């Protein structure tokens, strides 16, 4: 995802997080194009305030396609709720995201993450599957740096295994997705920006916070692994903040009460099991198309 304006990308490096949110919320929004491969209206452009211009993505509520399993007109608010919960973790998985008015009414506005034109972040790989149909052997043959997800067939008919890196940044995203019940963690929703080449962002969180189990992801390679001390500490803090802190109030402004309660229940289930959940028993556990 290359940038629509390098000058705006350079400006964001010098702003603190509060200033970025102020520009996204109150800046003049100018739309300059549309991302045509998105399911819902996804626009890109810029926001400008007091001489500062930032590139952004804008998804108006009016452009959301009706879905049978999510209430109409709620996807933009779910994106903002995912940002609020991401901030509470301290992991900064979701780029700064706000609700605001735009040319077509209210919608979410998110900081654009500038990435290299090739978008080659080396977090996913296709490994040769030259073994007896046991995907776990693919990771072993490639070394412990990979976690297998599923067997696939290449365009030339050869079998392979789709795998992701055994990367702590991705483990955090896997845990985050389990909390927000992300139904759409595709490979293309993982971004490594040019401004922070050591940081991994996650985008497109409209299909989150459903009260029913919807978890679909390409990060199943961590399934069954212990949460680890850091993730447990973060989840315990989220549980407390949802009960009595500001986080619960912020989510209550964006989600139904049942969805907030279900989020806290998922956190408690993760803490009780002390493991990253797996795809077993889930219908269509991998989003399609996977990228």
From TrEMBL:
It comes from the Bacteria. Residues 272-291 are annotated as: Disordered. This is SCO1664 family protein. It comes from Catenulispora pinistramenti.
